[in-house]
Prior knowledge:
Layout: H1 16-40, H2 47-56, H3 68-84, H4 117-146, H5 148-166, E1 168-175, E2 181-186, E3 192-197, E4 201-206, E5 213-218, E6 224-229, H6 241-258, E7 276-280, E8 285-288, E9 294-298, E10 305-310, E11 316-321, E12 326-330, E13 336-340, E14 347-352, E15 358-363, E16 367-372, E17 378-383, E18 389-394, E19 400-405, E20 410-414, E21 419-424, E22 431-436, E23 443-448, E24 452-457, E25 463-468, E26 474-479, E27 507-511, E28 515-521, H7 524-540
Helix pairs in contact: 1-3, 2-3, 4-5
Amino acid sequence: MAAAAGPPGATFELTEASRRQQEEQEKLLRDFELRRRIRSTVVPTDDGKVRAMLRALGEPITLFGEREMERRERLRKLLAEREAAGEGAIDGAPLIGQVVVEEVEMQRELFYTEGEEALLKARKAIAEWSLPRAAQRIAAQKQQMADLQGLQALDAARKASESAARRLAQISSEIGDDRPIQGVQFSPDGSTVATCGWGGSVALRTADGSCKRVWAFRAAAERLTSLAWHPHAQPTLHLSQQQQQQQQQTSAAAADSMDGQEGPAAAANGSETVALATGCADSTAALWTEGGKLLRKLTGHTERLARVAFHPMGHHLATASFDTTWRLWDVESGACLMEQEGHSRQVYAVAFHPDGSLAGSAGLDAYGRIWDCRTGRCVFTLAGHVKQILALDFAPDGWHVATGGDDHTVKIWDLRKRKCTYTIPAHTSLVSTVRWQPGSGHVLLTAGYDCAAKLWSSRDWKLLKVLAGHEGKIMSADMCPVFSGGGSGGGRGSGGCGLGGGYEALVASVSYDRTIKVWAPEEGAAAAAAEDEGGDDSSGDDDEDMDD
């Protein structure tokens, strides 16, 4: 039976449920329209103009804990609400949908900050030191490329280095500290490996399968962020007393023959010789002897330090800081020679060219910069990473640079072509370390927060080996710099692996899990199996190119 209809023209009141539903629908429409207006409202990007417009609206220019982007969004919402309410626009406010073009005065002229006489003296010394070495390197490369036997020897050394990388296996794992270990680096002669961590301690260990701790000292009350060996340091604590005396005599004779041209640490490693530098979260760097005696403390940065690096000449130290600058220090006096700006955010990594002519810096602004140490100019900007850059290293050939960042990639830059020539999809998390194989550059070592270190061929950027074993993110890794048959011997435990002209493939890695692990090439049947497995990995892990 149908319900009776009312008289024509009669109106009926909505039920309470229908009224609430209608109000909710109207509110949704208003919110949708407001969001549309907010999206189409354009506000200035200059924070000063944003604050001025908020003041004109009678609103607080900033709220507690509010950042620039949040302040812009608040202004955008206020303007959209005023437009929806039919209120007039304030002076200087953009209209809905209007494109705002801000006039920015571009400074196209180079400007210089007057430096001290000590900086001029340092630049001259660097130029005199680096130019002959650059000439020697280029002449040797040309001679090798023009000689068939030289090319064959180069190819054989490269194959030997890649073979050693494929045969790497873990030979040691030790608890290195009570807190996560932040940095690791082999000494220049490959005999000792140094580590530093969040506990503020520095530990020296033998660079062999035992990884025996030979010395440790407390360097800071706060966490250490990095360490670096002096390029002429010659550790002796791992030697017997007789070997130490022989080492000192040899070093003293070498120092006399060099007539002091190689820097303050070129002589024997006496008690007052700079051997190590550390960077600390308390914004200071420090110079230490091998035995842990503090020689100089470098103060001047206003925020925590990240990486530190010695100039290959040995006279200067570079420190990268979260105060958006990196500084150049005189090792002998501890004076700050230069405070270099150029990054818009924190500077995390710093490194020097093998010739000493260039310095590289990388920061959390996703840019790297190459600086001419002889003039102070920025000669190349490394633009390509989409997130912050955390690692940078120069190749021994002098014209390749590797950078690693929070975008999980490693980029290879050609300084001659002034562009990125290859992008390696290296890790599944941020890249904490990039390190070229010392001396030859045949292999590139990378490590990341995905708990793995990897080795890549610099010939075609194929994956050679994955070093897995850490239970936490890898904070740092390094490769042994000892030339096979030189330095400290020739056996695996003493630093040489007999590659016939190649370089030692010994690798050390430190992690958030508080361990230090050492990796060395296997021998015999296990080596053949690793070689086959490494060959399979290198052919299938990098199928899709990411050339830039």
